[in-house]
Structures are given as C-alpha cells and as structure tokens.
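Q: How would the structure tokens look for this protein?
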Amino acid sequence: MKKIIKLIRIIVAIFVLLDSVILFAVNQNVGTTSAMFKVLLSPKVVSLGGAYSTFTDADSLVINPAGVSLATSKEVSFAYTKWLVDTSYGYLSFVLPTGIGSFGLSVSYFTAGEIDEYDANGNPTNKTFTANGVLSSLAYSRKLNEKILVGIAGKFYSETIDDKSATSPSADIGSIVVLNEKIKLGVAVQNLFGSIKFIKQEDKLPLLFKVGGSYRIIDNLVSAIDINLPTDNNVAVNIGVEYNIKLSDFIIPVRVGYNTATDTLIGFSLGIGFIYKDIVGINLAWTPSVSELDQQLLNAGVSFKF
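A: Here is the predicted structure in token form.
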C-alpha cells in the first residue's frame, strides 16, 4: 500500500511540473529554428515513435542524458538517414562507463544538398547553395541510488547556409526513476538556452520539456509513452512497443511506434533489429508515410559494445 501511495505522489508531482512548464511555454515568444533539433536520428528511437525517455543505451544521449547511467561497457552507435529530397542525417555516439559515472559523446550532422537560389522578387538566379549543421554533445550521467538516475549534457550547435554561419551553445538535463522491475519514469529538458542568428534574424533554440514512462508487460515485451512540450509548437505524444524474440545467441527486437508531432513529419513507424550476444546490433526503422509527400523513410544503424 505504501508503494502505491508513493507511486501516486511521484506521478502527481510530475504532472504538476508539466503543468507549470505548459504555463511557461504559452508565455514564451519563441521562433522555430533548426530542424536538426526535431528530427529523430536513431532507428531504435524512430521505430518506437520517439518514446525513448526511459531507455538506457547510447542512443538515449539525444533524448535523455540520464539514459547512459546504467552502462556497464563501452558502446558505439552509428545511424544514417536519407531524408526528404536530397536531405540526409548522420549520427554517432559513444558511451564510456567509469567508476564515477558514465560519459557520453554524440555528434549529429545534417546536409540539405544543393538548393536552388532565388532573388528578393522570387526569380531564379540559376545558382545553387548548400545548408548544413553539426550538433555536438558531451554528457555526464550517474546513479544517485538504485532508483534515481540523473544526467546533464553540454551541447554546441553550428549551422551554415550558403556563405553565412551561426553557432550556439546549449544544454540538456534529465532524470530516470526506476520504480520497480517493470515501471520507469523519465523527465528531460532539452535546449535550456541558446539562439541562432543569421544576419538580423535571431531564433531561440526550441526549448523542449519531455516526460514519459515505460512498462515491462512481460520479460520480452515493453511499452513506452512520452509527452513532449516544445515552446514553438503544440504538445506531442510518442507511443512505442518493443517485443524481443530470443533465438539462441541472437535477439530480434520488433518495434512499432506512433508520433503525433506533425512538424517532425513522422506518424506510424516500424522497426526491427538483429543483436548478437548483446555485442553487435543492427537496427532498421521504416516510416511508411511522410506528411503530404509521397516518400518513405528508412533509417539504418549499427552499434557495438566492447
């Protein structure tokens, strides 16, 4: 009975905090900038609809820095996405567990390929230009006790459009509460500060508050949900389910997810992985429809533990 009361108190506290952040966000005059902060990069994250705030691996670095607290071995994860038209994304992360906690390093890049140039009147100039961005992050995470994990990440963003460039520092914080073997709760705040300025136009980085939870239904089946509150858009919900098929030395995770955030252009998503002895993993994610554009997205990633 005491455990149930404690769980209720924690959930109530989280939703009170969420309500406070909603009131704060409504009163912010925040512009929209940097699609790189909104696109999901890891195929595991994509296939679960973005519901990843309580997961604990190298791919959690860009969602909740507390997620690498439980790392017991070094891990490298790489992912690549051929996105819309000529746009592509790449992602590399590294986790190093130590006696004082876990450190994580991630680098993401974005390139839009060649873009047709137009003058101030909307007439083509018969020239092209490029746009790209790089986001680097250094995180530190540790266990406060057997139930509470915390993490913080310092970030640096650089964006170039044609011959103009801009940079900005920022930071993320996060926490995961392990209630029991089945239930985890996660909270994260991304892009606490920072802005990007091109010539006279300055946009704040999109502050995002995230709260979520996961429930292990049975040993090899877990469900997850995240609620996202960006200051430059509407509240979005991420839902995901992962089922692990165990075959001797192999684990085959099958994932399905849904993301209500229309600005990320992702709705339903499917994914599958192939993990050998919990050392080498290959993960794929497929998004069958992308907004009003008749395109399909395929994310591919590889991870290693050593």
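Confidence is low (pLDDT under 50) at residues 1-32.

Helices lie at 2-26, 43-47.

Upvote if useful.
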